[in-house]
Structures
1.
Amino acid sequence: MPEEAAGDVGTIWSPGSWRAKPAAQQPVWPDLDALEAALDRIRRQPPLVFAGEARALQAALAEVAAGRAVLLQAGDCAESFEFSANSIRDKLRVILQMAIVLTYGAGVPVVKVGRIAGQFAKPRSSATEIRDGVELPSFRGHIVNDPGFTAEAREADPSRLVDAYHQSTAALNLLRAFTKGGFADLAQAHAWNQEFVAQSPQGRNYEVLAGEIDRALRFMGACGIDLGREAQLHQVDFYTSHEALLLGFEEALTRQDSLTGDWYDCSAHLLWAGERTRALDGAHVEFLSGIHNPVAVKLGPTATPEEVVALCARLDPDRQPGRLTLIARMGADRVRDSLPPLVRAVRGAGHPVVWACDPMHGNTFMSSSGFKTRHFDDVMAEISGYFAAHEAEGNWPGGIHVELTGEDVTECLGGSEDVRSENLERRYETMCDPRLNARQSLDLAFRVAGLLRR
Ligand code: PEP
Ligand code: CO
């Protein structure tokens, strides 16, 4: 008999107990038999990650909760099925660069978590999209349908669930090779600075920093330290995460750990509920409440202290450091007012959570040229407001959660190369929300390092 964790009052948690609750943001699957067949295939596949890895991430996050480390969670808004080894490598590069800047600048370890190898499903503000009087289901990510504006493209196709599983295994395999097989070696820090980044002021600052790291390594070697034996210098721990949106898919990858008997969602190390799926009595919170992975919840400006404390009680009843991350995405103009009462309430309730700032999702608007965009200045303004709010509360700010790519895209405005509204069309390639390009990401890391130093 599988062990069952205590869920909501009066219910017993199981990987499928979410089915008795209202599940927001689920696609309409036209063929339920095909859906069941796809889920059954996934149920018979090996796990993507191990329970022990999820526990290691929770231990690392506990250090963030205690104010001794920083969380960097980053990646695409929505990953595309059309990926390449290069796009994964470049995303990893920029995340490694940002981590170096934060580690060196703030003097604390950085816990690295990608929105990667499974970030395929998107919640949408509207179930349908209308163009020229034609109404079709919204695009919900490559795990569900295709962005093309035809009825056929937009139909939810269960075979995509199986494709998403295989896509995740391929991405994760490459990430494991990159992070453990030499690419993430500190001695390679210069090589992470891509050509188009290296020419920017931030790229040049990064070169200086990488040079200092070289000198420090040579110094340690000269002192007789056998650098070859220090695994930390040659490998990084890199974790995966995505929004646990399609609960049937997540359930199919939820497995019982043979060591502890606990249930883990083995589709990623960390799973989160979004601003649209965090209903206390909803299916998503029910599902997250019983898995033993570290979990996160996004909080928008309407979240009340009572609501947030209730979410903490539900998702972190045992008050375990690192179990729960709260990701504030308030908007630059609201964070200074909305956040402090939440921070106070959570602390008052005794939950040792990790706080993180998502400075992207509260700052999205339509550019005059017709693109969904964000301005780098608003992103930085939200981060500054977020840090100020934590400082005022005497609370460790935890970390940041950003949407970025390693490529030279033009999706967010501003930054040192000053992307303007009329430039957005040049390389606007996102599947969903606008991402920081590698230069903007590095710029952001230097500024966050400055805030952390304070
Ligand atoms: C996202 O992270 O891409 C997202 C949809 O965020 P939120 O739930 O905060 O809107
Ligand atoms: Co997004």
Note: The CA atoms of residues 13 and 381 lie 41 Å apart.
2.
Amino acid sequence: MSKLENIKGVIFDLDGVICFTDQYHFLAWKEIADKEGIEFNEAINERLRGVSRAESLEIILEKATREYSAEEKTALMEQKNNIYKEHLKDMLPTDLSKEVKDTLDELRARGLKLAIGSSSKNTEFILERIGLDGFFDKISDGKNIINSKPDPEVFLKAADMIELKPEECLVIEDAEAGIHAAVSGGFHNAGIGSASKYAKTENAIASFRDILELV
Ligand code: BG6
Ligand code: MG
């Protein structure tokens, strides 16, 4: 891995990059799917990575045996989020790994601007749970976008907030939708976890600390 030229900021996806909420998303959607008698498993859950709550529900409803009205969908999303937020209460600052915290501190010490670019509307709540509230320079999340990843909107807004051009930012992602969003927005990207294997991943990283070799 070699250093990228002229990187002035890093934009982090949240779920699956800074912290690990997959299990909680899975448990909450599973409870909803079971209640509705809809098949749901880990493979379907994998497709929810990086996509919005509403689009996640649409993916789950592909296995439903009847149509759902807009009102029913809204109610299901609310129920799912309530269950999910109950699980999030189990998250503690000790759930933030030392590697992630040390790497973030080192990036900050190097003078890079640091932002979040997440589809989640629970971003602020999660950051509070893991003790990172107030840490990032700016937060672009599910609350300030119309189009979810793979649309680049969340990253373009993050770059705008930290007053950098896309090509001056490195996006860190674990989802294919997020890597596509970074590429179509003109950002450099590094893929971690599942995203280390995607065709459009520019820099596959095995570990969070590897970001330090890229900037
Ligand atoms: C993304 C997750 O970060 O946020 C997705 O990877 C999730 O799985 C999306 O659907 C929206 O999250 P929330 O917290 O707004 O329901
Ligand atoms: Mg993610």
Note: Residues 14-16, 25, 48-53, 56, 81, 118-122, 142, 175 surround 6-O-phosphono-beta-D-glucopyranose (ligand 1) (CB under 6 Å).
